[in-house]
Amino acid sequence: MTDALSADAPVALPATDHEAEARNAARNHRRRVLFWRWFILALMLGGWELAGQMGWIDEFFYSRPSLIAVRLWQWATEGVDGISLWYHLWVTMEESLIGFFTGAIAGVLVGVALGRNRLAADVFSVYIKVINSIPRVVLAPIFIMLFGLGLASKVALAFVMVFFVVFSNAFQGVREADRALIANAQILGASPWQLTRSVIIPSAMSWIFASLHVSFGFAIVGAIVGEFVGSRYGIGLLINVAKGSFDAAGMYAAIVIIMLVALGVEQIMTLIEHRLAKWRPAPLQETA
Fold first, then answer.
1. Which of 56, 255, 258, 282 has a beta carbon 3.0–4.6 Å from 51's, enabling a disulfide?
2. In terms of Cα–Cα distance, which of 239, 125, 236 is closest to 172?
């Protein structure tokens, strides 16, 4: 009887076997994700190309992936109207990065400050709501009128696009901090600065990084919109010129450049988040 029970009982695997299984499962999951990503991309591009060649869609408006690739190659090798594509890209990236970093830093600082101060939050909340309700596109011509066609107007618009996204998440993250941890830190004699640095900000880190992932895209949008309204250089100018000459391939080529840049920055930001937040437990789907 004892032998039968012992034969049916599950055998516990060593910890190393569990770790090996988890690594293999994670590796297989990544492979499946990559396969489906590339498969869907190839399916969409192939369908688009086929529809254009068969005349199912009008190339004048929708172009084709092959024509877009040719336009990208022309821009990369010959430039655009005598100006290097990389210079246009650098101008847009400079505007986006400056607006992103200044807007993110200001958003975190103001969000944490108002989140920690109930009176200040109640006083300034109405002003923040009013300013946040202004359509961002309306600000583009105003900033160009105030700061000119140069760098400052595009940075200002990117700053505004980023600030309110980061501020909202930082403010809410501070308000959602674990009250038990705060009480324990206060019992141990933590000063307000120590409490903010060691408890509040780490607790709000997930909220802040969630906003940073989307806010860089908003920074690029701000820079592009500013360039579209008035600029001498930048990817937004290329889109505007392509629109004026009904160059669909040029418009889509500029959009592809923006998407690739945003994707690259997103990957870098994800790596930074993982490095700064190693203490966080893995999400459920990663531990399953």
1. 56
2. 125
Q: At what angle do helices 85-116 and 235-244 cross, to 10 degrees?
A: 120
Question: What are the Cα distances from residue 282, in Å, to 55, 142, 198, 200, 266?
Answer: 49, 45, 21, 20, 19
- Cα(131)–Cα(182) distance, integer angstroms: 32
Angle at alpha carbon of residue 235, lines to 233 and 238, rounded to 5°: 80
| Alpha carbons 191 and 88: distance in angstroms, whole number | 49
Is residue 47 a contact partner of residue 36, using CB atoms and an 8 Å limit? no
What pLDDT, in 10s, does the model give residues 173-230? 888 887 888 788 878 887 888 888 888 888 888 888 888 888 988 999 899 988 888 8
Query: Taking Cα atoms as reference points, which of 234, 189, 190 lies closest to residue 92?
Result: 234
Q: CA 205 to CA 211: how far, in whole Å? A: 10
Question: The pTM is what?
Answer: 0.80
Distances (CA, A) of 181 to 108, 115, 192, 196, 283: 21, 16, 13, 12, 21
Sequence letter at residue 264: G
- Per-residue DSSP letter, 25: H
